[in-house]
Structure formats: C-alpha cells, structure tokens
Amino acid sequence: MKKIILTAVFFAIGIPVISADVIEQSNVPQSEVIPEVQNVVKPADPVRDELPPQWSEFCEAGYERAVYKDRHDVFDIFSFVKSERVKNNYWAERRVSFEKYLKTCENLDSHSKSACYAKLREMENDKNELYKIKSKQLLYENNVDIHRR
Fold it and tell me: Is the model's pLDDT at 118 over the cut of 90?
C-alpha cells in the first residue's frame, strides 16, 4: 500500500516538473515569441512643457515640505534616526535648488520659459534616477536583500 501511495505522490509531483522541462526545451516558433518591451522615448508634450513643473512630481512621497535640519540629536546613535535626518536634508536641499531654478525660468519670455521648464524636468528626472541607483548601491554594499519577498 505504501508503494502505491509513494508512486502516486511521485507522479503527482514529478509529472509537472518533467513537463515544464519539456516545454522549455521545445522549439517555439519565432512568430509566437513575445519581444521584450524597449524603453520608448515619449515625444515632448507642448501643453505640459508650458506649465511650470510641480515639486511633487519629482519628490519622494512624504518629503514634499522637507526642511533642512542642521542640528544633531541625542537619538543619532540610532541609525534609523540619523538616516531619516540625512534623507530629509537631501530632499530639502533638492527642493531649494528646484525652487531657485523655477524662479529663474519664470523670469524668461514664454518661448524660453517652456524650454527652461523642459530642462528643469529633465534635470530633476536625472537626479531621481541617480538617487535610485545610489540607494540600491548603498543597500547592496550593506548586504541588504533588495528583492526579498
């Protein structure tokens, strides 16, 4: 009886594994292969470029009104308190820089203003990409598992 149960369990578990190997090795016609999605560059939106960018478009959620804090707390001995202060100061500095550039753009004529807004958006998006890369690199250096789920 045990042999029959063991054989049934083997077939129940083994057949899907074997069939998955067969499917992977099969020759799929090229017409059925789904191509990878490439990064598509979106054309510039003239209506969007004429409107001034908002800080909330680029800022991480929760740091829209970040204020630079120069003081050090007693609680800085806890790494999460210190890292939160550093993160808050980063977004506060970025916001000040963003607002200065935005004021410069607002003093220009209409054609130059839209080009200035587009340049500001491009710069802020580049900064966000760099921020994401640096965050992942820091996690990697500290041996933090990024894709843990």
Answer: yes
